[in-house]
Amino acid sequence: MSTASATSEPTAFDVLIIGAGISGINTAYRLQKAFPQYQYAILEARDSIGGTWDLFRYPGIRSDSDLYTFGFSWYPWNRSNPIGEGKDIRAYLQDAMTAHNIAPHVLLKHRVLSVEWDQQRWTANVQNEDFQYQFSSKFIIFGTGYYDYDKPLATTIPGIQNFKGDVIHPQFWPETFDYADKNIVVIGSGATAVTLVPKLAEKADRVTMLQRSPTYLASVTNLSSGGWLSRILPSSVNYYVNRFKRLVLGRLMFLFCRTYPNAARAFLEKRIVPQLPPGVPLSPHFKPRYKPWEQRLCACPNGDFFAALRSGKAQIETDYIETVESDGILLKSGKRLSADTIVTATGLKLQFAGGIPIIVNGEKLDISEKHIWNGIMLQDVPNAALLLGYTNAAWTLGADASMSSICRLLSLMETKGYSVACPSLRDPSKLELRPLLDLASNYITRAQGAAPKAASLRPWTGRTNYFSDLYFATFGNITEGLELTT
Ligand SMILES: Cc1cc2nc3c(=O)[nH]c(=O)nc-3n(C[C@H](O)[C@H](O)[C@H](O)COP(=O)(O)OP(=O)(O)OC[C@H]3O[C@@H](n4cnc5c(N)ncnc54)[C@H](O)[C@@H]3O)c2cc1C
Ligand SMILES: *[C@@H]1O[C@H](CO)[C@@H](O)[C@H](O)[C@H]1NC(C)=O
Ligand SMILES: *[C@@H]1O[C@H](CO)[C@@H](O)[C@H](O)[C@H]1NC(C)=O
Ligand SMILES: *[C@@H]1O[C@H](CO)[C@@H](O)[C@H](O)[C@H]1NC(C)=O
Hints:
monooxygenase activity, globular, FAD/NAD(P)-binding domain, 27 strands, FAD/NAD-bd_sf, FAD-binding_MO
């Protein structure tokens, strides 16, 4: 390996964006619209854009969110189905980039190895195939998502080494894997398991979802409701009506669940019971131990999961694994599930800022020790933003609300002549800490220690909700907690 241009000047930009997923693409659009004079680049480690929607290739891969809110407000999702399949989301992202001339700014196969702040500028050390380059910028934006692309959540499945069949992790699904006539056990109960089971059941001989503890499932219709309003409105207006409706209903549903958990539980269960086949009781399989929306609510489009159960090709087991054997799984209850394929849908390993080492004035920073400023910037990290979305609404909404604040900050810096904006916290002891991501899911609670710190009051909060974050972006005190220098 050679290190190119170690002595030459780094390529200079106004802004560097790391990651060409949905957040990075949205950032590029917002940035070039607000600051057409800026030179910017998107550095993307992989050989294509799309992030999550390019990495995950398991059968049936789809969104949980509706694309009216998960897609870009500036590029309407115009398909009739609100829930998008992976390939359609990829195509949509590509089309959005092409339509707005973002593609020429993307540098694929450019992996950021570290970023360093020195003398009022960022330098990114970047690996492109066999070469290393340096790029510099005034401002840097991490659109790196929230999980580790290389390592899923580590879980110990007792006896898994004894298994003679295929063991597949959904994060690395072999695209050529033929699951026709297989006898598959999917371990897990999250969105991935709920997506995989009905899809696999179409061709497999038998699919069993094995869960330790149940999740709340909500059937959603995979067809945008074409009420009378949609027939009289032009399609572009319709899109915004749909988007607004889903924004508000999503928020109300979340608030309802959190405020009236018992009523919410009854509401959700009442919709599940009629979809269950005889012999599959609500309890224990669909009786979660937590309250609705303490973990992400799983969507099942057109009730596909329940249809798979009714077809007899899919089963559900709520039990613990005693040990995996060569051709099946022995459960704690004494029951045995035979299998020739095991899918470990056990979750994501959380990671912030892509795990990229951040060095400020010669010192490497531990982001878990830093407080987050309005869910956007990190304490003591100048001219840098970390795009985080919502866990209880579409991610993109949060990433976009962040960009509204960042654009306001950048234009303030322009007009007032500031070169540096850095969140600075003198007395953290007064803050009342809160988890950065407000969900009790296993993969989130296990990673809480690695996340930046969040508190209960602005400006040291994490993401709140779309309406509050938009209000902040428009009217909030954008300088509070920031140290601005010329
Ligand atoms: C299977 C699955 C389904 C999901 N469904 C939904 C859903 O329905 N609704 C929802 O709101 N959320 C969903 N999510 C969460 C989802 O990840 C986010 O909503 C969204 O796709 C994140 O977009 P992003 O651009 O922020 O991050 P990502 O999509 O993760 O993209 C990050 C990009 O940064 C790049 N990158 C990372 N490190 C570096 C580096 N060092 N150098 C250069 N580039 C780097 C990566 O290669 C990647 O392209 C889902 C997640 C998964 C895994
Ligand atoms: C929908 O958007 C795609 C681009 O993603 C475009 O090619 C197509 O013409 C649009 N269709 C309609 C019906 O507007
Ligand atoms: C949703 O609808 C679209 C379009 O009708 C279809 O292609 C897709 O398979 C459906 N997805 C699910 C999960 O039902
Ligand atoms: C914003 O906050 C700063 C610091 O707390 C304060 O000095 C300033 O007056 C506030 N601005 C407004 C408009 O409230």
